[in-house]
Amino acid sequence: MLLYIAEIVAAIRISLADRTNFTVLFSGMVLNNGFVLLMWFMFFAGFRSVHGWQRADMALQIGILAITFGAATVFAGGYRDMAAAILRGDLDARLTQPSAVLPRLLAQESGPHGWGDILVGVLLLAFAAALRWQDLPALPFILAGSLAIFIASGVLFSSLAFWAGGARSFARDLVEFILLFGSWPGSIWSGATRLVVYTLLPAGFVVVLPVHFLRAPSLVEGGLLMAAALTYAALAWAAFTTGLRRYRGA
Amino acid sequence: MSAITVRDLRKQFRYAKSGRGLRNLIAPQYTNIDALGGISFTIAPGERVALIGPNGAGKSTTLKILTGILLPSGGNATVLGLTPWQDRMALARRIGVVFGQRPQLWSELPVRQSFALLRRIYAQDAAPFATRLDALSERFDLAPLMAQPVNRLSLGQRMRCEVVASLLHKPDVLFLDEPTIGLDITAKTTIRDLINAQAQSDGLTVVLTSHDTRDIELVCERVIVVNAGRIVVDQATETLRRRFLARKLVTLRSAAPAITLDLPGVSARPAEPHIAMLDVDTRIARIDSVVAAALSLGGIEDITIEDPPMEEVIHEIYAAASAR
Amino acid sequence: MKPTPLWPWLRGTCAMARVGVAATLSARTVLLGRALFYLLVMTVLTRFWTTVAHETSAAGITLPAGILAYVAITEWIALSVPAIHLRLEDDIRFGAVEAHLLRPIPYLLGQIGQTIGAMLVRLALLSPGLGVVLLTGESMLPPITAWLSIIALAVLGGTVHILLIALAGLSAFWVRRTVAAYLVMQKAIFLLGGLFIPVTFYPDWLARFARGSPFAASLYWPAIVVLQPDQSTVVMAFLAVFAWIVALSLLCAAIWHAGLHRLLTQGI
Questions:
Q1: Domain B246-306, architecture per CATH
Q2: CA-based nearest residue in chain C for residue A40
Q3: Complex ipTM more than 0.90, yes or no
Q4: What is the mean pLDDT of each run of 10 residues along chain C (268 residues)?
């Protein structure tokens, strides 16, 4: 754990070292999110709701997604290029060192643009998501669960690289799919699409379930979120360790 | 007790055949490649051994198995009494590894910070680590480099830092995979000298793979030649040179523009005016006879008698192994 | 001032376009992934607009019939545009540009040509998915003659899109990573280009601004013909895309020269 913290602190220091680069990326991300929010605010100004999902719910959903994505980029940014690292053989050097490989892969990079997402997410939750004071204690739990599922999905998709060379871009695309599904009102899913967002591309667990839980907390939904986080984490760990055995020629 | 023991080590890689379209999805066919066909050797503590062979011979595969990266298909091996692929973490604390083509330092961090992270990885106490770092830094002349990001260093500077990084935790065995690849002559000499000095002072066991024969000659006292997954030769460096080449190279410098020496067992190599390079087969011609004959011509200003370069030795070994 | 060799440049650009076609066709798995992504996106948008359509009648707002056809066209164009900004970023940052300066065709023109070639392949390969979406939708489709205009406008609109993304890529002369510039450009195209809904649904002031912007030339103008296939809209669409292709080309050339000057005098 201490090693992970030391490595991610080093990665964050690197990302902050070039101030111009950091400013450009940070501002770019804020502007990028601003465009998205403008689009949604204009939409809800005209259309009022989407199957019960209103502007404040959309703000809450996007806020959770932005914080989750931003935190993953800042604190576990290595997930984005993990497939490429596997295909390049970067694991060799790490395997000769006395530490677990996966945490070190996650900690090898920190994206400065993630801070922009975190800031926008916090502002959305604070000023547009219509949260009540009594919702605040549940927020860390929600965000932790969301983050765990998102990072676990990234690891799971990247682990495909142990089996297929073309997995590098495919893994990135799968993460983009989660963001795509997570960027649209959670109230539109039903039938097959609902099945997809709660299994293969778990945007449902990353954003939709957290929104439901915050609006109307229930033990069932809280339990579901925790179970989903543990399940995806276990799946990611299993996929990675199985893939690593294959990498080592077992 | 030996530092490294390898018994009948085998490794087979399996690749799916491509170019069969959809049939590959339904009934894939595989090709088996024998990377190692059963190799055995022992390395004593403090020995410095070169593991050489042509491309695809199995050197890197052997190194990866001994460092715990790869699992073998058969046979067994122990490094410092540990089975590498089973006791990877425990072994990692006691070995150092340098990959010439795969850096382990953090490219955007200053060198000092990379070393600090390695202290955490190897769970070293701060005070003894600092002492060790200072000593290595002085020996490897790293003081001017410590504050610079790794990606700003030249290749030679980076390799010095990589070697130091592999020595900071006081390993008992040092594995080096092509440590001088891409370096200029000066940088190669520096790296070799430093490895030798450190190995002697720490009593390190060194296993090195390289295509540079000077690495072998100047660092290692023993050579294991691998070809097509099998050990072809396992001998002391000096014995290897003498055994495989009953030859000497005699270089003469003369006042006369050309030197002609017509003796059985002596053949001339192309050379510049006033220089003659003679290949002497010592099974046919004695060196003292050749030197006497050269001196009798008169005008000889300089004579050098040396063993042929290791490159030629290796080339002959590869050629002999391929012919079998 | 030396005259520019237009005809050799045009031939060279066409040759680079052929390179783009060949390279894209060889990456079959990536193309398959893109087709899958298009279908997923259309699934999401179909769910979204179908849900919204049920609500709007109660609120007194009517969605245009054929909104899904409109969105299918804008997504078809948007997903067909390759990431030229990444290639520019790599070449500029790692010095590969310098080798290209010795060639008889300007580097940027060659890259744009290659990207257009790649885009044509993607447009062709995504068109079956487009066909499925249009034929399974409930809206009335325009006549065949309008489709010729739509396809031509899609290619031209895609070219505008490429030029806009190239502007983001050229920022690599000044910043390390173009991701921020690219994302801003992408969102501007999505919002002001009317990716999800025609810009005519925006507040008046924004709709006027968007229609006159280059972003609308990349998506809105090609796609609006499917909702309004009348002659005046078609003519307006062609005028808008041609005007912006010229203007953006000049802008790209100016930024390229400024960046190249910086590279050659200061290095990167």
A1: 2-Layer Sandwich (3.30)
A2: C191
A3: no
A4: 70 86 81 84 86 69 79 93 90 79 81 94 92 78 85 96 96 83 90 90 89 95 92 95 97 94 76
